[in-house]
Write a structure and sequence with these properties.
Helix content is 62%, strand content 0%. It has 417 residues and is mainly α. The chain has one domain. The N and C termini lie close together (9 Å).
């Protein structure tokens, strides 16, 4: 066996299946009749673009295509339509069931990645840490929101974690494929490319950009020109901070737990806010300043981490970049927290294995952030929870690196290497 590399044992895999089964039954079979909130937007957009050859950025057209319930506008860039194109080939009911099955398959894959591939092989998770990760995963409410809404966040989350594992294994092109898929699924993961550059992962970033360019050229051929024109004219100009995208909520909506949402509630008058003063221009200015501060601190931490220990800079780039991405997004709903889940489980696993070696304030911050993110009833406090996870990752990236215990690795069944 390669030193420090852990292999899943059959007994442990059986235990994981047993623990995951109630989760699958509750949120799989139990959700087979749930009316998705977001999937109608993806399905109607695919039908508009590829069946009717019209622009999916016309909210009225989407409503006509799906009159059974409210349909949110489709706001993603035109190349992303390539990802949802298969939905145009099936009815909505079939699409709903297929997406539910796909999301559960991806959730199982994500759990496997979080236990066996995302953690540094030099610091393999102990059985206790694995139990903590699995327990946290199956009680993480934002994950169930993905199933209920018919969202595609798990596509991006799994792609990012697969890219993480491929980058560690020096499989550059495979990582680029995964990164391109993540960006196609949710757009926001494009920010991770900047942090990977700071970690000196130049080759996979260049390959990702080239793949995205090729996909954009393909989209120019198959996506109606009308869609491109309408996205550049109507959607893109209203995608910044303090702006309300066409057909969507004001950024002050209480469910928007990003910095943009918080400051919009502080300085704009809406049904969701009780502002200290009404000054939308100030809200926009402070949001840009806060986002730049988060980016600057994150970039500095990743750069410092690379200069001190290039081998661990990849983990620091991902651990700092994922929560930063959620913090500075114009809109961050509860289902976006699946992007912070890998970082939270890594920190909890490290806390379970090295708790006494971590400063008490850091351990407290990790616990508070992870605990507040998980339940349904704490959704109003997701922003400070993500700030806790980001702050803990930032501290660990800037802190002096302790050597990983690679000399005597611990396998997942608890036996020494």
């Amino acid at each position: 066996m390669t030193p420090g590399v852990h292999k899943p044992r059959a007994g442990l895999l059986v235990l994981l299946v047993i623990l995951y089964a109630p989760f699958l039954i509750t949120y799989g079979y139990g959700y087979r009749h749930v009316r998705n909130r977001d999937l109608p937007s993806f399905h109607s957009a695919a039908r508009a673009a590829f069946s009717l050859h019209k622009s999916p950025y016309d909210p009225e057209l989407l409503k006509k295509l799906f009159p059974a319930q409210p349909v949110y506008p489709y706001l993603y860039p035109p190349p992303t339509l390539l990802l949802v194109a298969p939905l145009s080939l099936v009815s909505y009911e079939h699409a709903r069931l297929l997406v539910l099955v796909l999301n559960h398959a991806l959730a199982a894959l994500l759990l496997w990645l979080l236990v066996f591939r995302v953690p540094d092989p030099r610091r393999a998770l102990s059985p206790v840490a694995i139990a903590v990760v699995v327990a946290y995963f199956v009680t993480f409410h934002p994950l169930t929101v993905v199933f209920a809404y018919g969202q595609l966040n798990l596509v991006a989350a799994c792609a990012l974690c697969l890219a993480w594992a491929c980058l560690r294994a020096e499989r550059s092109f495979a990582a680029a494929l995964c990164l391109a898929l993540a960006v196609m699924a949710k757009t926001y993961p494009a920010l991770i490319l900047a942090f990977l550059l700071l970690a000196r992962r130049v080759k996979p970033v260049v390959q990702t950009v080239l793949l995205l360019a090729a996909l954009s050229v393909a989209a120019l051929v198959v996506v109606p020109w009308e869609a491109w024109a309408e996205w550049f004219r109507e959607v893109l100009p209203r995608g910044g901070y303090g702006e309300t995208p066409p057909g969507l909520f004001h950024p002050a909506a209480i469910g928007n737990q990003s910095i943009n949402g918080f400051l919009s509630r502080l300085f704009t008058q809406t049904q969701w806010s009780n502002p200290i003063t009404v000054n939308p221009a100030l809200a926009k200015l402070l949001t840009y300043a806060a986002a730049l501060a988060v980016l600057a601190a994150s970039a500095w931490a990743v750069h410092r981490a690379w200069r001190r220990d290039a081998a661990s800079a990849l983990d620091d780039a991902m651990c700092v970049g994922l929560p930063a991405m959620v913090l500075i997004a114009p809109f961050s709903w509860d289902h976006h927290l699946v992007f912070v889940l890998p970082v939270a489980t890594l920190l909890l696993g490290r806390l379970a294995d090295e708790g006494r070696g971590l400063p008490l304030p850091l351990a407290a911050i990790i616990l508070v952030g992870a605990i507040v993110m998980a339940p349904e009833y704490t959704w109003r406090f997701h922003l400070p929870a993500v700030l806790c996870i980001w702050g803990a990752a930032l501290y660990l990236a800037l802190a002096d690196k302790a050597p990983a215990a690679a000399a005597q690795p611990v396998h997942v069944d608890g036996s020494p290497g």
